[in-house]
Amino acid sequence: MAYRLTPKLMFPIGNFKNISSGFGEMNVYDNRLWGKHLGIDISAPFETKVFASGRGVVVYSKLHPGEFDDEEGKVLKRNWGGIVIIAHKDPKNKKVFYSLYGHLGKRYVKRGDAVEMGQFIGTIGKALSESNGVWEEEHLHFSIYAGPYHGKVLPGYYKQEENSRTEPEYWKEPISFIKNYSPGAKLD
Ligand SMILES: [Zn+2]
Fold it and tell me: Which of 31, 79, 97, 153 is least buried, going by the fewest C-beta atoms within 10 A?
């Protein structure tokens, strides 16, 4: 795949003051310990527009297939709604990294699409529906990942006992990553 250089980054959704769960928090949801949060959650109502954080190429755009957990003999399926992953390349150090947008209702890009910073890529999904998953609160899950990508949905949480799924050091705190990448990037 041909990468595209990403000169600047911006925040993908209107207001970053509405963070309901920060990066690195140990989240318990639905009576389950999910582990360390690998992104940030930004509260936003149903159908809020979501924009590409930077120029790049879409490498994933699908409804999350869902994760199956066996808890106390009950198999539970949880999904994150629609997910978009965009590949970026830093022109300064030539490193490839990815931005991930989860809990999308509508998605307006497909795998292979070239996107520009600020391009309208989708909307926030409805709570407790297939487009948002089991989550009661409508929000965007946003992550920056700087590790190798294998074509699958990237995890949203890190648990030591499941560490074959990801390496925590590949995950960057998105707000400071964007600010350091694009000095002067607006917060809202
Ligand atoms: Zn999240």
Answer: 31
Asked whether residue 31 is assigned to any structural domain, the reply reads yes
CA of 163 to the centre of ligand 1 (A): 18
Return the CATH number at 34.
Answer: 2.70.70.10
For the chain, what is the domain count?
Answer: 1
Residue 51 CB neighbour total at 10 angstroms: 19
With respect to residue 187, please indicate whether it lies within any of the assigned structural domains: no
Structure tokens, 116: 């520009």
Segments forming the whole domain that contains residue 24: 19-172
Distance 15 CA to ligand 1 centre (A): 16
pLDDT tens readout for residues 53-62 = 999 999 999 9
| Ligand 1 center from residue 80 Cα (angstroms) | 9
Q: How far does residue 101's CA lie from ligand 1's centre (Å)?
A: 10
Compute, in angstroms, the gap from residue 23 CA to the centroid of ligand 1: 8
In angstroms, the CA 63 to CA 77 distance is 14
Distance 156 CA to ligand 1 centre (A): 6
Instruction: Decide which of 79 and 102 is more confident.
Output: 102
* 98 assigned to some structural domain: yes
Single pTM value for the model:
0.89
CB 166 within 8 Å of CB 147: yes
Query: 80-106, pLDDT tens digit by residue?
Result: 889 999 999 999 999 999 999 999 999
Q: How far is the CA of 84 from the centre of ligand 1 (A)?
A: 14
Model pLDDT, residue 167: 82
